[in-house]
Amino acid sequence: MINAKLMRNDGILIVEPVDKLEKKDFKQVALLVNPYLEKHAVLNGILIDAESFPGWENFAGLVSHLRFINQYEKKVKRIAAVTDIGILSILPKIVKHFVSAEVRHFSYKERELALSWLQTDGAG
């Protein structure tokens, strides 16, 4: 399960995995994002708020996650991975080879800094 919130004024999607990710989770996030993208060219950012990462319920959940990334990767300017989980903290180094968005890791205590970074226009 994913909790998702769209900060419409900022064009920022906040996602928080709270239970094993399922195929339907990505459909629900798409229902939140698609109406915004019909009116705007891109999302300014995605904040992945991952105090923990429960994994995927099954292979269909993983495949849906990968399809979601593929479908939206060119429509996102920046991704902030907010986590202290070791494997997820190296996410930016891995993901930069697959997405056009600028990706950065922030420790969990830097969540507000991550949000501020997503809200800025320039690099920095």
Task: Tell me about this structure.
It comes from Psychromonas ingrahamii (strain DSM 17664 / CCUG 51855 / 37). InterPro entries: SpoIIAA-like, SpoIIAA-like_sf, STAS_dom_sf. This protein has one domain: Transcription Regulator spoIIAA (2-Layer Sandwich), CATH 3.30.750. The chain is 40% helix and 25% strand. It contains five helices and five strands, in the order ββαβαβααβα. The protein has helices spanning 23-39, 59-72, 86-89, 91-95, 111-119, and strands at residues 2-7, 12-17, 43-49, 76-82, 102-106. Strands 1-2-3-4-5 form a five-stranded mixed beta sheet, sandwiched between helices. Helix 1 (23-39) runs parallel beside helix 2 (59-72). The model has no long low-confidence stretch (mean pLDDT 85).
The count of strands amounts to: 5
Question: What's the order of the H and E elements?
Answer: EEHEHEHHEH
- The low-confidence parts are none
Overall helicity: 25-40%
| Global morphology | globular
Please tell me the total number of domains. Answer: 1
CATH first level: which class? Alpha Beta
Classify the oligomer: single chain
The value of Rg in angstroms is 13 Å
The structure class reads: alpha/beta
State the CATH topology.
Answer: Transcription Regulator spoIIAA
Placed side by side, the strands forming the largest sheet appear as 1-2-3-4-5
Could you tell me how far the N terminus lies from the C terminus, measured between alpha carbons in angstroms? 32 Å
Count the helices. How many? 5
Round the mean pLDDT to the nearest integer and report it.
85
Largest sheet: 5 strands, mixed
CATH architecture: 2-Layer Sandwich
The percentage of residues in β strands lies in: 25-35%
InterPro entries: SpoIIAA-like, SpoIIAA-like_sf, STAS_dom_sf
Protein name: STAS/SEC14 domain-containing protein
Pfam family, one: SpoIIAA-like
Organism: Psychromonas ingrahamii (strain DSM 17664 / CCUG 51855 / 37)
